[in-house]
Amino acid sequence: MDGRLLDAATTGDAVTMKHLALHNPTVLLGTTPTGNTCLHISSTHGHQGFCMDALALNRSLLSAVNADGETPLLTAAASGHTSLASFLLRCCRDLQLSEAILMQDKDGYNALHHAIQSGHRELALELIAAEPALSEAVNNKDKSPMFMAVMRNYEDVFEKLLEIPGSAHGGTANYNILHAAVRNGNSAIAKKIVETRPSLAREEDRCVHSTPMHLAVIWNKIDVLRVLLEHDRSLGYMLVLISTGPVQRLGQP
After folding, report:
1. What's the 3-state SS for the chain?
2. How many CB atoms lie within 10 A of CB 159?
3. d(CA 155, CA 146)
């Protein structure tokens, strides 16, 4: 990448960028050793004006992927620049660049994972509406966007994800969204889960083979326990079949 373009992208100097592109349009396609284009770099720093001007000159920058597997949309979402991420999402959608929207980085995170992890619920809802298939991805730790949303008690995001038939619901170590609802003592979410995906009530984690019912008893989550038993009283009889080894709480959301 031309050093002048690198500096311009870092500082958001769109004037210099346009001057360079006027004399050599292909300069915008230059990359750093880690594969970052000027759009990646400006997205990292949240320079929305620069990004808009760069895309006006070369829209192919939207699909560029760096060495970490990130598109500019992913970079913006991971960096917490919600307004810019929303703009880039609209650009991708207008150009029907589903692949760019669905891209997962080297850790398996897509833009929706990052939005939920960072607490950007409005961006998460916008991403779900624009590309529902984002809900199907799990990261390298087997966490689905829905699992992350339930762990954080984001009921609005959870409900939208639950409406998508193919949305993933798993988490690390084979925990699922119902395990996460039990962890938080969220009986409202638990009720919606057992009504729509009842089989999750019988799934065991890989650590100590605990079902959501088992954890509700151990962690004294009475309201959730009541929801589970009202849904299916036979769940109570599963306890005798499960290992009574030490049970650890689910990790941080």
Report:
1. CCHHHHHHHHHCCHHHHHHHHHHCHHHHHCCCCCCCCHHHHHHHHCCHHHHHHHHHHCHHHHHCCCCCCCCHHHHHHHCCCHHHHHHHHHHHHHCCCHHHHHCCCCCCCCHHHHHHHCCCHHHHHHHHHHCHHHHHCCCCCCCCHHHHHHHCCCHHHHHHHHCCCCCCCECHHHCEHHHHHHHHCCHHHHHHHHHHCHHHHHCCCCCCCCCHHHHHHHCCCHHHHHHHHHHCHHHHHHHHHCCCCCCCCCCCC
2. 14
3. 10
What is the reported pTM? 0.91
8 Å CB contact between 42 and 58: no
Q: Are 44 and 80 in contact (CB under 8 A)?
A: no
pLDDT digits (tens, 9 = 90+) for 15-42: 999 999 999 999 999 999 999 999 999 9
Contact 27, 5 (CB under 8 A): yes
Q: Of 171, 142, 167, 172, give the one whose Cα is nearest residue 157.
A: 167
- Residue 67 CB coordination number (10 Å): 12
**Angle, vertex CA 107, rays to CA 77 and CA 63, nearest 5:** 50
